[in-house]
Design brief:
The chain is built from 4 helices and 6 strands. The protein is α+β, with helices and mostly antiparallel strands. The chain starts with about 30 loop residues before the first strand and ends with a helix. It is globular, with a radius of gyration of 20 Å. The strands form 2 sheets. It has a 3-stranded antiparallel beta sheet, with no helix packed on it. A 3-stranded antiparallel beta sheet has the order 2-3-6.
Length: about 170
């Protein structure tokens, strides 16, 4: 979380199961901040690469869906899925608790804007993460906004069904 960002920048390895923490009540955990890229792969090296385009991302991966966690009082009651539940975001609000767990996050660690722009690329990986990273083109949040809201003049003119019959 943004106010628990103590690890140095580097390449870290692990498993989705290894990121899970058993709290007294199941809850979302394992969030990573300032992520440039993350790869999820099987023993054969094939998998998926998530690469930030522009600003770093927040990444969270687990084998339990949110409904499963909400409906369970304890972790041992949850059934682990073989699927990975992946959350990719621009950032998460800080957790607070500087002096006590009841204290809110500091103002600088709160997300107060109504909208955030971020971009990432999903790239299939066949064993060589460096090759997959090298093969991507530059792409940023402004490009995403342009694609999401293209100028009306650049859109193709498709006649409505009523115009086709005239």
């Amino acid at each position: 979380y943004i106010d628990r960002n103590f690890e140095p920048i580097g390449i870290h390895g692990g498993t989705v199961d290894g990121e899970w923490t058993d709290y007294s009540r199941p809850q979302i955990n394992g969030n990573k901040t300032d992520v440039r890229w993350v790869s999820f792969s099987g023993d054969d090296g094939t998998g998926l690469l998530v690469a930030a385009e522009g600003a770093p991302l927040g990444i969270e991966a687990r084998h339990y869906g949110t409904p499963t966690m909400r409906e369970s009082d304890y972790s041992f009651q949850m059934e682990r899925s073989d699927d990975i539940f992946l959350n990719i975001d621009a950032a998460q609000n800080g957790v607070g608790g500087i002096n006590s767990w009841g204290q809110k996050a500091l103002e600088k660690h709160r997300l107060n804007k109504k909208q955030y722009a971020y971009a990432y690329r999903l790239i299939p990986v066949a064993g060589d993460v460096d090759a997959a990273l090298a093969g991507r083109a530059a792409f940023g949040p402004a490009d995403v906004q342009a694609l999401a809201r293209p100028a009306e003049s650049s859109l193709p003119k498709i006649p409505s069904p009523s115009q086709k019959n005239q």
